């Protein structure tokens, strides 16, 4: 039996500042590359999946992440951004009978954090 999965790629422009081990970075920009791996039991139009994901990304695009309500209690590290996106995208895609099975978020070509569904 084949393992069929959609992969959709998006880009998110945002700035942030992180604190790791007590050291603060400067405010700096990223163009995050976001790869979404999605399963559906039926064929679904790409636009439906894209629209659901863009509902989330549009709220973050061209924003200073530290200033957003979603990051008032957590530092907007790559890992925390990925966790936030995974939860929000999973909920949105579930509403159209899709399942986000893996999410990869890269802050550069050599730095990626990913979450896979169990």
From TrEMBL:
Top EC category: lyase
Domain of life: Bacteria
Pfam families xref list: PTPS
Alphabetical list of Gene3D superfamilies matching this protein: 6-pyruvoyl tetrahydropterin synthase/QueD
Reaction catalysed by this enzyme: 7,8-dihydroneopterin 3'-triphosphate + H2O = 6-carboxy-5,6,7,8-tetrahydropterin + triphosphate + acetaldehyde + 2 H(+)
UniProt-listed Enzyme Commission number(s): 4.1.2.50
Pathway(s) where this gene product acts: Purine metabolism; 7-cyano-7-deazaguanine biosynthesis
Family, per entry: Belongs to the PTPS family. QueD subfamily.
Name of the protein described by the UniProt record: 6-carboxy-5,6,7,8-tetrahydropterin synthase
Species annotation: Limosilactobacillus urinaemulieris
């Amino acid at each position: 039996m084949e393992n069929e999965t959609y992969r959709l790629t998006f880009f998110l422009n945002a700035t942030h500042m992180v604190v790791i081990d007590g050291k603060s970075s400067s405010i700096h920009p990223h163009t995050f590359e976001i790869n979404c791996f999605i399963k559906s039991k039926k064929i679904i139009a790409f636009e439906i999946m894209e629209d659901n994901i863009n509902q989330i990304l549009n709220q973050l695009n061209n924003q200073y992440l530290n200033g957003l309500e979603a990051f008032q209690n957590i530092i907007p590290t790559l890992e925390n951004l990925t966790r936030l996106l995974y939860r929000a995208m999973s909920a949105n895609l579930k509403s159209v009978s899709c399942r986000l099975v893996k999410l990869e978020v890269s802050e550069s070509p050599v730095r990626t954090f990913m979450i896979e569904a169990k």
